[in-house]
Design brief:
Elements (H helix, E strand, L loop, with lengths): L1 E6 L6 H9 L3 E6 L7 H18 L3 E3 L5 H8 L6 H19 L4 E4 L9 H15 L2 E2 L8 H10 L11 H8 L5
Parallel strand pairs: 1-2, 1-4, 2-3, 4-5
């Protein structure tokens, strides 16, 4: 089975890639950029992912554009519900690439994170898959959370401290003084 795996970063790719390849699936990555801020962070994540993928012999499709403004315009005044839009945007892009590339299914490393909304990711993936005519492959990769972290540390991979968007960066690092 040919799988397009939406990848958010190198560390989050470790365990899902291991599982999917362990199921004899042919995996290709897809790196989505528009939600990651600042651009230097985007490039650092992309480079880490590409270095890891090269060691595993996995090809990765990377977006060539960086439409941060479109992303921000889409979530402004809806910041509390930004993840819903972000999931839709990333998974829609992955589904379109999967359809164009004649993949059997698509999935996402978002399903590895304990901090993401799995029900919403699954619903969104299934809906955009139906729209595009390519199936969404749901796997709960969270059981490998610790294993992936330990492996990324062993490999000296860059490990980010927020999901990528400007809002999560603020939530992670800015603490109001009281």
């Amino acid at each position: 089975m040919k799988v397009l795996l939406h990848t958010c970063c190198g560390p989050c790719t470790i365990y899902p890639l291991k599982v999917l390849q362990g199921e004899n699936m042919e995996v290709m990555g897809f790196f989505y950029r528009h939600n990651i801020h600042p651009f230097s962070e985007c490039l650092r994540r992309e480079n880490t992912l590409m270095e890891f993928a090269a060691t595993k012999g996995v090809r990765v499709i990377c977006q060539q554009t960086y439409e941060l403004e479109r992303f921000l315009q889409s979530v402004v005044f809806r910041e509390k519900d930004r993840c819903r839009f972000c999931y839709y945007d990333r998974l829609s892009a992955a589904a379109k690439v999967a359809k164009k590339g004649k993949f059997d299914v698509f999935s996402s490393t978002l399903l590895y994170s304990r901090f993401q909304n799995h029900d919403l990711i699954r619903q969104t993936g299934e809906a955009v898959g139906k729209e595009q005519g390519v199936s969404f492959l749901y796997r709960d990769f969270r059981e490998g959370w610790k294993e992936g972290i330990e492996e990324s540390k062993r490999l000296n991979m860059y490990r980010q401290e927020y999901c990528g968007c400007i809002y999560s960066e603020k939530d992670r690092f800015y603490k109001e003084s009281r």
